[in-house]
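seq:
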Amino acid sequence: MTFQILIQIFFLGIGLSMDAFSVALVDGLTIKGITKGKMFFIAILFGFMQALMPLIGFWLVELIEVVAGVEAGAKAGHIATLVVVWLAFALLLFVGGKMLFESIKGLTNPPEEKIEKEFSYKNIFLYSVLTAIDALAAGVALHTGLSNNYTVFLHVSIILVITFILSLIGLLLAKQIIKFLKGKYEIAGIIGGSILILLAIWVVLSHYLGI
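struct:
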């Protein structure tokens, strides 16, 4: 394991964790009453899922190769990558569009009719999957790029740590933005929804343009 490979893993972790950073920022902007404990829970869960998905993608291709051969594994990996990219795009676009619509609508409602978004473990889990689903494709790519299968565990461990740190930064940054907005969660929701829509577009562009 050379220093150059470690640097490559580091930048891979940065690239994969940007989704988690963005959604953590959105969570911090739109959910009321996030305590420090809940921040750590979100960051740990995001990190875990961001590390788990590449591992699933990696071993899925490995399994197909064992059962059906190397060529079948390569084809399955290509198909899986396309499915994952467009699924991530659709989910992010849907969640972001819904958040944007509800936030704009909320600006026109009387104060007594506004519903504040509360912390939900179920929603946080769904967001953690949403942020990490496109990392399945990274697992497929890792399978073709690694000569030693055990090295994948080092990759996903570094990805987990980087995602945890960046998710925490996103949540803390959101807290400062909320203070600047003086608690106007509808405006924060508009920002958050826009971020998710841009993230959806970025997922597709990064795949086809190799960014």
